[in-house]
Amino acid sequence: MDVPLPAPHVTAPLGWRQRWQAWRDSVLTSPEFQRRAARSWWMRPIARRRARGLFDLVAGFVYSQVLLACVRLKVFDLLARGPLDEQELARRLDLPPDSLQRLLAAAVALGLLEHRRNRDGAACFGLGKLGAPMVGNGAIAALVEHHAVLYADLQDPVALLRGTGASPGLSAYWAYATAAAPGALAPAQVNDYSALMSASQPLVADEVLDTYDVRRHRCLLDVGGGQGRFLRAAARRAPDLQLMLFDLPGVVPVAREALAAEGLAERSTVHGGDFVRDALPTGADIATLIRVIYDHPDARALVILRAVFSALPPGGTLLLAEPMAGAPGAPRMGDAYFGFYLLAMHGGRSRTAAELQALMETAGFDSVRELPTPIPLQVGVLVAKKPAPKPGF
User: Fold this and answer.
1) What domains appear along the chain, each with residue ranges and CATH number?
2) Cα separations (Å) of 301 from 238, 293, 294, 347?
3) What is the CA radius of gyration of the chain?
4) Nearest CA to 278 among 316, 244, 249?
5) Continuous H helices in the chain
6) What are the phi and psi torsion angles at 222 (to 5°)?
7) What angle do CA 7, 10, 11 make, to 5 degrees?
């Protein structure tokens, strides 16, 4: 009995681009080419730059821990008062001389600190170009501290990708993103992440409000508004704007207190509920979703968008702001950082502006447009409208 032979695997002939890429790969992976490139005067700068880039990927975790050490020791706040010499830093930071030298050398190499000279010409240390923005910036400091949870989840990235490891710590931290009934979560399960979001909100609130003028609206509903940080910023921009906030019941008391503390009690109403299950309050002509949708998978994101659509009047505006995949000049942030962060959350994913637009249009919105932001790495902004009913309907 003849056994039929498997059909040969037929591939289409390679085009010029595929042939060039195959040739390039064969050259770049050749040890002999790598050695020659390192010795060639005209290729040496390219070889060094690529070697440095690859090593930075390998050493990135160490760099982040140098930053964490500086944050925990409050090095930036200390040097904000003026440069200090090594002896004074050792006294104030309570570090052994050898350890301090290692930290200072690392911080200088990373641009967090820089070498200075005092009035007497003695060597000292001051803030570097990357360290200066850290001074008094509680938002970045809170994120740096928070990343300890993320790093623990990433200690076995293959297990995380396969879903075979221990339950990630971030999925417990952001419990609302995966809970079957987020509205039933106790305050202790929601206040930590809500506090982090509030602390980090200044990173994006002013950028969003600089991009879109909320003064053209009468009443703003911030969905998933946490402790009201974005609403408070909006209130300062638009003194006549009425404010509404919707978030989980466990978050509501803190939000109400925070708004009252800034004298906004009479201008604001705070509502508790689960935006996946409960109807949102009506009455606003603009609704905002600030860093909310990327926490959720597509099906859940669509439920949230439809809930916002139902709450808005015809002609109402949706303002959606969050870091986006494929952001101009920031692919590492949207595709690499948030891609793995959200995987560890077991929640959503980073989406491109086009993907978010498709979700918004599926929910019923139209006239979706992307607004340019000063720092796309931090946040992208989309604006959409709830269409008015057609005549005769």
Assistant:
1) 44-134 (1.10.10.10), 140-385 (3.40.50.150)
2) 29, 6, 8, 10
3) 26
4) 249
5) 16-28, 31-39, 44-72, 75-79, 86-93, 97-109, 138-153, 157-162, 169-173, 187-200, 202-211, 229-237, 252-261, 298-311, 331, 338-345, 353-362
6) -95, 110
7) 160
pLDDT by residue for the chain (393 residues), tens only, comes to 454 545 555 556 668 788 777 777 676 667 776 667 666 665 667 667 777 777 788 888 899 999 999 999 999 999 999 999 999 999 999 999 999 999 999 999 999 999 998 888 889 999 999 999 888 777 788 888 888 888 888 888 898 888 887 777 777 665 555 555 555 555 555 556 556 565 566 778 889 999 999 999 999 999 999 889 999 999 999 999 999 999 988 888 888 999 999 999 999 999 999 888 889 999 999 999 998 998 888 999 999 999 999 999 999 999 999 988 887 766 677 677 877 877 777 767 889 999 999 999 999 999 999 999 887 778 899 999 999 877 665
Query: Please, what is the Cα angle at 30 between 25 and 34, to 5 degrees?
Result: 105
**3-class secondary structure per residue, 218-264:** CEEEEECCCCCHHHHHHHHHCCCCEEEEEECCCCHHHHHHHHHHCCC
CA nearest to 230, candidates 255, 266, 249 = 255
Instruction: Tell me 337's DSSP state.
Output: I
Instruction: Please give the angle made by the CA atoms of 381, 384 and 385, to the nearest 5 degrees.
Output: 155
- CA–CA separation, 146 and 167 (whole Å): 17
> Rounded CA gap, 306 and 362, in Å?
9
CA dist., res. 60 & res. 151, Å (int): 12
Whole-prediction pTM value?
0.74
